[in-house]
């Protein structure tokens, strides 16, 4: 099924890019151009990424848990995570 009609990007292609590490609509756009013309597919891409298509999302969440254990104040943990990215 097509996600982006403007550039002919399919759901499978988005999932493949997500498996390769593209975990945001912007990263999917960089990899495939999907979402860069009319923009009507961006919500669909967000939906696909939100359903676990991105294996790195688990690693980010694990990193947050580890940082929270070291820096119990959420603001400090978030700042440290942003700096690490």
From TrEMBL:
Similarity remark: Belongs to the Bfd family.
Keyword Translocase: no
Record's protein name: Bacterioferritin-associated ferredoxin
Keyword terms of this UniProt record: 2Fe-2S, Electron transport, Iron, Iron-sulfur, Metal-binding, Transport
InterPro entries listed in its UniProt record: BFD-associated_ferredoxin, BFD-like_2Fe2S-bd_dom, BFD-like_2Fe2S-bd_dom_sf
Domain BFD-like [2Fe-2S]-binding: 2-50
Coiled-coil parts of chain: none
């Amino acid at each position: 099924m097509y996600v982006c009609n403007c550039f002919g990007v399919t759901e499978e292609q988005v999932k493949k890019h997500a498996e390769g590490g593209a975990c945001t609509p912007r990263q999917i756009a960089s990899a495939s151009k999907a979402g860069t013309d009319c923009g009507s597919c961006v919500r669909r891409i967000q939906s696909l990424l939100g359903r676990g298509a991105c294996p790195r999302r688990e690693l980010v969440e694990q990193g947050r848990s580890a940082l929270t254990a070291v820096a119990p104040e959420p603001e400090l943990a978030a700042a440290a995570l942003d700096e690490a990215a």
